[in-house]
């Protein structure tokens, strides 16, 4: 697991917390912030996943 994957998952968790707090406190701004954090986290994790896949493929195809 690389740093982008870890940061992406962390951002998703923070986003879920912010979204839940926004719902409980009836704060649409906080809820939206949580949604955006989750989206950003998913993108960062996907980037990290792609980097890992590329690294794994390079190792497999190395002479």
Automatic annotation (TrEMBL):
Entry superkingdom = Bacteria
Tell me which InterPro entries the record gives: CsbD (IPR008462), YjbJ_sf (IPR036629)
In which residue ranges is the amino acid composition biased (Basic and acidic residues)?
48-63
Pfam families in alphabetical order: CsbD (PF05532)
| CsbD-like domain boundaries | 4-56
Disordered: annotated segments? 19-63
Family of the protein in this entry: Belongs to the UPF0337 (CsbD) family.
Name this protein carries in UniProt: CsbD-like domain-containing protein
Which species expresses this protein natively?
A: Paraburkholderia dioscoreae
């Amino acid at each position: 697991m690389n740093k982008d994957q870890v940061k992406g998952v962390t951002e998703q968790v923070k986003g879920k917390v912010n979204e839940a707090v926004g719902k409980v406190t009836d704060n649409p701004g906080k809820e939206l912030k949580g949604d955006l954090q989750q989206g950003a986290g998913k993108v960062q994790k996907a980037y990290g996943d792609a980097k890992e896949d590329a690294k794994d493929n390079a190792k497999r195809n190395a002479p």
